[in-house]
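Minimal example, chain plus flavin-adenine dinucleotide.
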Amino acid sequence: MLYESYQSPWLDDELRILQDAARKFFETEFKPLNEKWISQGKVDREAWLKAGEAGLLCAEMPTEYGGAGGDYRHETVIMEEMHRAGVGGFGNQVHSAIVAPYFLHYGTEEQKQRWLPKMASGEMVGAIAMTEPNTGSDLQAVRTTAVRDGDDYVINGSKTYITNGQHADLVIVVAKTDPSKGSKGISLIAVETAKNPGFQRGRNLKKMGQKSADTSELFFEDCRVPVSNRIGEEGHGFIQLMQQLPQERLNIAQAAVVAMERAIEITLDYVKERKAFGQRVLDFQNTKFKLAECKTEALIARTFVDQCLLKLMDGTLDAATASMAKYWCTQKQCEIIDECLQLHGGAGYMDEYEISRMYADARVQKIYGGTNEIMKELIGRTL
Ligand SMILES: Cc1cc2nc3c(=O)[nH]c(=O)nc-3n(C[C@H](O)[C@H](O)[C@H](O)COP(=O)(O)OP(=O)(O)OC[C@H]3O[C@@H](n4cnc5c(N)ncnc54)[C@H](O)[C@@H]3O)c2cc1C
């Protein structure tokens, strides 16, 4: 245990049982496959079914839609254990904590019945496609269009950097249903990818880190989907995205905190073993000071995200506070992992040491989910 006297205030006995079960599952079922997944650039498809069977998908979805009937704390516990086991390439954060809530909050009863049980079992993998080759931060500038034709929308455009893109069966596409209306012309449309001739997956993109996570280009060419696949009202897509982004950003911040804690723990193990100049590396004052700083900052981050979680639970987590958590925690994640890598010496640069992989995996945390510059923009608006 990294902190001697701090416990997340939201963690209760029921969640501790889930925590134990999730830890065992990720350690025994996923960890042994991780090297294979890294080399193939994606997890095996069966991983989704296995996680579904173990009840680890869609934990916050109600039981009537196949979910576990929990809340965001349950998603958090599962996500944390996944990262502690070092198998963060499994795209459940996007699937369960980002995509499924759109259906729950804005979907029709028919949509919920049709998609959520299959997402909870792992039969369907979810993705969300906002980013395009020409626009990421400036979401209002998306060029993908969805034009009404009878009872269908015809979608044209391309998306990139889409998490779960290779496995996705159900993609929430951010598209302009009325390009003349700017952000008010954006709608969210669910595309079922199977047997849809207008949908094509592009390359599984090669990345600096997070190598077992599939990240893809997606193409839509006269891709027809029924109007009944629209999520919520036409033109409400941008507002829906803005409402859901705080949860997505908190989720990224929480993953950053787990990574900081894990980095400190493995570094402590290393510097207690490693010797230089006749003493343990831990015994140098510099090592103790560096790790003291890291541990202090990790605990500050932990208490902050815990407070944000409590706010999210009572519906008061605002966009600026979620942005603070996302920006600060991911910045600290990168700084702390860098310090921890330094304390490993040359070993820290070797793939076989976990810290090396964590360093590469961390970098994107400052970029996706809204870049940290955009987070500061959002915080700046409250000044
Ligand atoms: C591994 C990975 C997974 C991803 N998964 C998904 C996914 O599942 N779905 C999805 O839709 N997207 C996904 N993304 C995309 C990601 O969200 C975008 O890359 C991100 O939002 C930034 O957009 P961009 O790449 O177009 O950068 P740009 O918007 O082109 O930004 C370039 C630089 O300009 C800065 N900048 C832009 N605007 C401003 C401003 N107003 N003020 C100051 N600086 C600014 C940015 O901060 C950045 O430093 C993923 C990306 C990666 C790398």
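The pocket of flavin-adenine dinucleotide is lined by residues 94, 128-131, 136-137, 161-163, 207, 210, 215, 364, 367-368, 370-371, 373-374, 377 (CB under 6 Å). The domain at 127-233 is CATH 2.40.110.10 (Butyryl-CoA Dehydrogenase, subunit A; domain 2).
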